Amino acid sequence: MRSGGLSTRRVYHVARADFLQRIRSRRLLVVLAVIAYVGYLVNVGTVEIFYQDSSNEQLYQYAGEPTSAYIGLTAAVTGASILFLAGYYVLSGSLERDRTTGVERLVGSTSTTDRELLLGKWFSHVGLVVVLLGTLGAAALLNHLVHGTGSTDPLWILGSVFLLGLPIGCFVAGVTLLFQSTDRLRGTVGNVVYFFGAMMLAVAAVPAVGDRAPTEIPLWARMTDTIGLFALGELTYDAVLEIESGYDGLGVANFGAGSAGAEVVRFHWTGDSWPLWFYANRFGLVLLGAGFALAATVPYDRFSSASSSSGTGLVDRFRGVVPSLGSAADEPNETVRRPNEATLTPVTDRSAGGFGRLLGQELRLLVRDQPWWWYAGALLIGFIGLTGSAPPEAIVSAAAVWPIFLWSSMGVRMIRHRMTPFIISSRQPYGQLLAEWTAGAIMTAAFFGVALWPVVLETGIGGIIVLLGAVVFVPSLAQAMGLWSRTRRLFELLYLLLWYVGPLNGVPALDFAGATAETAGTATPLLFGAVGVGALVAALTHRYRQT
Fold it and tell me: Is 60 exceeded by the pLDDT of residue 208?
């Protein structure tokens, strides 16, 4: 990193150029459309803040009337949740784009320092967060005019959205730059680490709640409140007690769709002042985000390779540790052939080998260049699965997430290595696509097969349908999302969320892997198989548009 003072002018121009590049992307329109739809769901009560309590075997769900203040809080916690869990995957393409396009090295030849570059990127990310939150706030504001109760107060709706969401965006922007500047964290490993880290941080302080009222929760726990549920509980808890003095449920607010079988009771809340500790909490998130952006200058290397996945194979790495193994091969050959003596075998058939050769190459590309611990983990999963030494739900959940490093490269590899023009102009543009899908299906069958064989033996045809549904669904989804989004992050985010709710937490309706005993014999694997067929058709459609 170059020395010298910080130039705010250079920081501004880096931020401006990167921000303009981000908002010109057509993919941003899709993100904004999803955000606007979420704003609609907030206003119609599909997504809301609520408390739950049970009495006489009846579950009660206490939710607010759609006043401006309540809609503002609900939209705010929705935006904060989206940014905290998915913001990393939306923001993390900036440095990657600079690497693949060569802009990183071009900037490296200027007087812009690493600190100025990364601070500019951080401000650009924060600017994009403002656009996302502004879209959500505007959607909530307009929808409240139609569906809301009482007068529409722009200050409560927009103010709450930015007060909760913007500091989270600053924090996530800093973490994104730190991860994307670190070689080992800029790829799939970083995506997985962030997902699990965010999930753990979101619930880290929940055990401290217990039976306490919101104002009795320890201050240290409230200061770790990332999404803002503790603050929301402190704001709205008294409104719940006004309609149900005997409420003895959790003092922290819940967020989401709630329970379908619960009896909904509405409380009226028109707003209140935010607690002082919450302002300190939000300011701390902003400082942490800026600190992470500055810390990213330590591992950042603007002259690093363009691909984080590039690397040597296992043999080359071992030879690197024991250089003497390669000394003989590295010695210069005493017999040097002159150029006029070199011969080339004439190419008479450009389709030699056919589909089998393509499949072999795609399999090789799919499994190579993974870190040693990934291969060790794959062998461990195979051993445990074949020996049946672990509960089915545990080994199936592990087998369903471990190959994510392989699946997420499908559809993206040829884009990253700029091979698309060569493939679509070849004699087998669809053959390459089908070979890649078949390679992914083979790996899916291998991992799921060793984990599901006890289920297959026990349930018969039902277990076979579960296995076939997973084999069709997972590689099709990965390939289609990779082709259409041109990045692996979309598949990794959606797949991890689906895996977390379905196989890991045992929700049968979303258990595409068969980790729960209730999945076999139901329509769930058939539905996921149908989604997989649709995704495969979408991938073929994309290839047709390319050709």
Answer: yes
> At CA 75, angle to CA 70 and CA 78, rounded to 5?
125
Q: Which residues pair with 59 in a beta bridge?
A: 54
> What are the tokens at 76?
């705010």
In one-letter notation, the amino acid at residue 132 is L
CB 187 within 8 A of CB 409: no
Residues 6+ apart with CB under 8 A from 237: 51, 213, 214, 251, 253
φ, ψ (nearest 5 deg) of residue 361:
-65, -40
Residue 510 pLDDT exceeds 90? no
For residue 125, what are its two tokens? Answer: 């990310």
Report the distance separating Cα 527 and Cα 434, nearest Å.
22
Six-digit token string for 248: 């003895």
> What are the residue ranges of helices labelled H in 402-512?
404-407, 413-416, 420-424, 429-459, 461-485, 489-499
Distance CA 370, CA 376 (A): 10
CA distance 290 to 170: 7
- Pure H helices in 92-113: 94-101, 103-108
User: Is 83 a residue whose pLDDT tops 80?
Assistant: yes
Q: What is the DSSP letter of 150?
A: S
Are the C-beta atoms of residues 314 and 257 closer than 8 Å to each other? no
Nearest Cα to Cα of residue 502 among 535, 534, 531, 528 = 528
Give the 3-state DSSP-derived string for 331-371, with helices as H, strands as E and coil as C: CCCCCCCCHHHCCCCCCCCCCCCHHHHHHHHHHHHHHCCCC
**Residues 6+ away with beta carbon under 8 Å from 270:** 67, 68, 69, 150
Give 449-496 pLDDT, tens digit per residue: 888 887 777 778 888 888 899 999 999 999 999 888 888 888 888 888
Q: Which amino acid, one-letter code, is at 384? A: I
CB 435 within 8 A of CB 351: no
State the residue for tokens 């509960």.
391
Residue pair 89/493 in contact (Cβ under 8 Å)? The answer is yes
- SS3 of residue 54 by DSSP: strand
Maximal C-alpha separation, the chain: 96
Residues 357 and 336: their CA atoms lie apart, in Å, by 33
Q: Are 79 and 112 in contact (CB under 8 A)?
A: no
Looking at every residue in the chain, the average pLDDT score rounds to 80
**In which residue are the tokens 């909760």 written?**
164
Tokens of 237: 């808890």
User: Residue 109 has what DSSP assignment?
Assistant: T
